[in-house]
Amino acid sequence: MPVAFAMAVALFLLLGLVGGAASLFDVSAIRAAAPWRDAHPHATSAVILFTKLGYAPPLLTMAALGAGWLAWRREWVRLVAMGAAVVGGRIGIELIKLIADRPRPGFEAHPVDVHSQSFPSGHAGNSMLTFLSLALFVAPERWQRPAVAVAVIASLAMGATRPLLGVHWPTDVLAGWLYGAALVMLAWWWVRRRDARSAA
Q: What CA–CA distance (Å, rounded) separates 178 from 15?
């Protein structure tokens, strides 16, 4: 797990270095999304509605409900791990945004409000942090695999809305997914190690 985490960090840093307005891949993707939005206004409205679920109030409400369930069951180790991943991860995203200071795409007016810098995507990172944490730490073990699959698919869909709406570069979103998944898996690895030691 530490090796995989180190590789994730290296890839995250690479995405931070190569993406943005200087990236042909990023610019091409953003420019391609604008005609789609113009041609599909109803679908765009649905995308805007869905992307609002990735803001702090809905995600933190989901996390708080999951944390409440763990507290009721007195699963303190999982509660601490989940809290560290979700809350610590959110803080980390905001700090990285300040440090990286990557401007958002600015080819046209944004169809949704944005208030921070671009790298990494908070929607991608925070949705992965929240959904994957709920799947691993809160879902019953017999439902864990399908819960993880649903969590990943939901986060992928959430992150994909951002370049589609022209408010994030694709590399921002890739980095957000990677960041969120890496932190949650690190927390999960820590919990499993503690469980193994307790059982020994």
A: 10
Q: List, for residues 107-124, the tens digit of each pLDDT value.
A: 877 778 888 899 999 999
Find the domain containing 49 and state its range.
2-199
Number of domains in the chain: 1
What tens digit of pLDDT does each residue of 74-85 get? 999 999 999 999
Report pLDDT digits (tens) over 2-13.
788 889 999 999
- Orientation angle between helical segments 76-83 and 170-199, nearest 10 degrees: 160
For residue range 35-66, what is the model confidence (pLDDT) as tens digits? 999 999 999 999 999 999 999 999 999 999 99
Distance CA 181, CA 192 (A): 16
Mean pLDDT over residues 8-32, rounded? 94
Amino acid at site 84: A
Task: Answer yes or no: is pLDDT of 1 > 80.
Answer: no
Q: How far apart are the first and last CA of the chain?
A: 20
> Helix 122-133 vs helix 89-100: angle between axes, to the nearest 10 degrees?
160
Q: Give the contacts of 173 (CB within 8 A, at least 6 positions apart).
A: 120, 121, 123, 124, 159, 160, 162, 163
Q: Which two tokens stand for residue 98?
A: 């300040």
